[in-house]
Specification:
Shape: globular
Strand content: over 45%
Number of helices: 1
Largest sheet: 8 strands, antiparallel, barrel
Radius of gyration: 17 Å
Distance between the termini: 43 Å
Low-confidence stretches: 115-135
Strand order of the largest sheet: 1-2-3-4-9-8-7-6
Order of helices and strands: EEEEEEEEEH
Structural class: mainly beta
Mean pLDDT: 86
């Protein structure tokens, strides 16, 4: 599994930075809304960042504000056919995230453990129904 971090960042305005480890860099999005289960956050993709940000808190070089870790952990892509859907295992009640783009731009939708449990229960029920012989 790869690591992720969500940082609070106060420059150029208060926002959150979602950073996903991808090889030797971090794929990064600025989240314009606070991540929370059941919330869709408007996002802007930023240039890749250094992996040092996975463990860093403090001032950002060049007078670009201060960052603090809001959440961190590991992520995985459980279904390769849905590469934009991630399972998160961090310190907050965020169990999954999904990236989408549409007419209004890019967004990340976050879900909590309750919703993930319901999704897993529904998937298991569907699989059982499909494997049960019909009348």
């Amino acid at each position: 599994m790869s690591r992720y971090v969500i940082l609070t960042h106060d420059h150029p305005f208060p926002h959150w930075d979602l950073m996903l480890e991808s090889g030797d860099t971090l794929a990064t999005w600025r989240l314009l809304d606070k991540p929370a289960p059941g919330r869709t956050c408007r996002a802007e993709q930023l240039p890749d960042h250094r992996v040092a940000y996975l463990d860093y808190e403090g001032p950002v070089s060049g007078g670009r504000g201060v960052v603090a870790r809001w959440d961190h952990g590991v992520y995985e892509i459980p279904d390769p056919s849905r590469a934009n859907a991630l399972r998160l295992r961090g310190r907050r009640d965020l169990a999954f995230a999904e990236l989408a783009s549409g007419l209004e731009g890019v967004s990340w939708t976050f879900g909590g453990f309750e919703r993930e449990a319901a999704n897993l229960t529904n998937a298991t029920s569907s699989e059982s129904a499909e494997s049960t012989p019909g009348p």
